[in-house]
Amino acid sequence: MGMATESQFHVLAVDDSLIDRKLIEKLLKTSSYQVTTVDSGTKALEFLGLHEDDQSNPNTAPVFPNNHQEVEVNLIITDYCMPGMTGYDLLRKIKESSSLRNIPVVIMSSENVPSRINRCLEEGAEEFFLKPVRLSDVNRLKPHIMKTKLKDQKQENTDDDDDESGNPVLQSQEEHPQRQQQQQQHHHQHSNSNKRKALEEGLSPERTRPRYNGVTTVV
């Protein structure tokens, strides 16, 4: 099950209406998508591995145990009007999650309310479809998936380049002791040269002085 191939992307469809779920599932499968359907935003988050703190039902068993670790979701399409958690609430929770925020989200609604549409788009939704959803609408999903995958690949390549180039600060720290050692060796050689020169300059008067003194003494 794992990673989706280019020919079959995985879409998570969220709708409390069984009829609408069946319709969107049929349209998505007709377009060669792998489809998972759930009937609420809470179940969608659970499938994605983002669990809510549900104090009212602390003993509720997970609906999709460990599924989010095995299945990659490439796009989420959700109804706007649902009991409990609305499609807008689900959208916000996905965009607030560091692990899920890059998944494209599309909102569906049977009501054409401009303020609602604008609010969803401003919150990060890729599209807002009016029901009934048509095949032409579903055909608009793939570019959003491809755009996200290309962005992820670019990010991975950037991370790889950073790893290969290494940390310049660390490199400079590693090179620094070598530079220091070279400078110390140069300084040591220069110091030895100065000492040798001073020694020769200091020795020559001492060597000539006895001769000079000897000559004067004899004279």
Unreliably modeled segments: 53-61, 202-219
Shape category: elongated
Radius of gyration, in angstroms, nearest whole number: 37 Å
Helix share of residues? Answer: 55-70%
Task: Count up the helices.
Answer: 8
Taken as a percent bin, the fraction of beta residues is 5-15%
End-to-end Cα distance: 113 Å
Structural key phrases:
219 residues, alpha/beta, 8 helices, 11% strand, disordered C terminus
What does this structure look like?
This protein has 219 residues and is an alpha/beta fold. It has helices spanning 18-30, 41-48, 67-70, 87-96, 114-123, 135-138, 142-165, 168-218, and strands spanning 10-14, 34-38, 75-79, 105-109, 127-130. It has a five-stranded parallel beta sheet, with helices on both faces. Strand 4, helix 5 and strand 5 (127-130) form a beta-alpha-beta unit. The longest helix is centred in the C-terminal third of the chain and has 51 residues, at 168-218. The radius of gyration is 37 Å and the shape is elongated. The model is unreliable at 53-61 and 202-219 (pLDDT under 50).
